[in-house]
Design brief:
The structure is a single chain. The protein is of the alpha+beta class. About 20% of the residues lie in helices and about 35% in strands. The strands form two sheets. Strands 2-3-8-9-1-10 form a six-stranded mixed sheet. Strands 6-5-4-7 form a four-stranded antiparallel sheet, with no helix packed on it. The protein is globular and about 55 Å long.
């Protein structure tokens, strides 16, 4: 019996990841979940295809993710079919990539009214009492690139799935690693870490 990925879980992943960003300067690890039947995973020849309507032309960006997934499949015991031959297995690949804005970043300087204190961003402070606080400046929101990669491996003859998984990550939109090629490789490596992985368990890959 095929186990389906929990859509509610993945709908919450972007929000929990963004919340984690707000609590510290570093981004959260890549989150990965895999599903299979706990049996030996079929190996053999395999072809990577887009998870899209039949006959649709793969985008240029898809080829970036497909290449990253194909590399990981070859490293995990799969092989490409000979020219003109049909593969034993099909790996369908889907991805999403979107710009996100995180929660407001706290100002490094604030003044307390009514009994709190004063704090400067880097150490030191002058007590002025506590109570209500308001930021001086600040309010800046961090920009992120959110990417999710989903892969399903199925038998070509009957289209029955033998393995499926998803990986989700955030990157600083201003960072040098936010481009599609880097994120595709990062997510593919995380997705196939310890392949086939423990079914139904969410792991974090740094």
């Amino acid at each position: 019996m095929r186990r389906r990925l929990n859509p509610v879980l993945f709908a919450l992943l972007p929000f929990t990841a963004l919340a984690a960003c707000a609590t510290g300067p570093s981004l959260p690890p890549t989150e990965v979940i895999r599903y299979h039947l706990g049996e030996p995973i079929d190996r053999g020849t395999i072809r990577v295809e887009p998870q899209a309507a039949e006959g649709a032309t793969p985008s240029i960006e898809f080829k970036t993710y497909a290449a990253a997934v194909e590399t990981q499949l070859l490293r995990n015991g799969y092989a490409l079919p000979a020219p003109g031959a049909q593969p034993q297995l099909i790996a369908t690949v889907a991805f999403t990539r979107a710009n996100r804005v995180g929660p407001p970043r706290p100002s490094p300087v604030s003044i307390g009214l009514g009994g709190g204190g004063f704090s400067g961003g880097r150490g030191g402070g002058l007590g002025l009492g506590g109570g209500i606080g308001f930021p001086i400046g600040g309010g800046k929101r961090d920009a992120f690139v959110e990417t999710e990669l989903a892969v399903t491996i199925k038998r070509r003859v009957d289209q029955s799935p033998v393995w499926e998984g998803r990986a989700h990550a955030l990157a600083d939109a201003r960072g040098t690693d936010a481009d599609a090629a880097t994120q595709a490789q990062k997510l593919a490596v995380a997705l196939f870490t310890g392949f086939p992985g423990e079914s139904g368990r969410t792991i974090e890959v740094k």
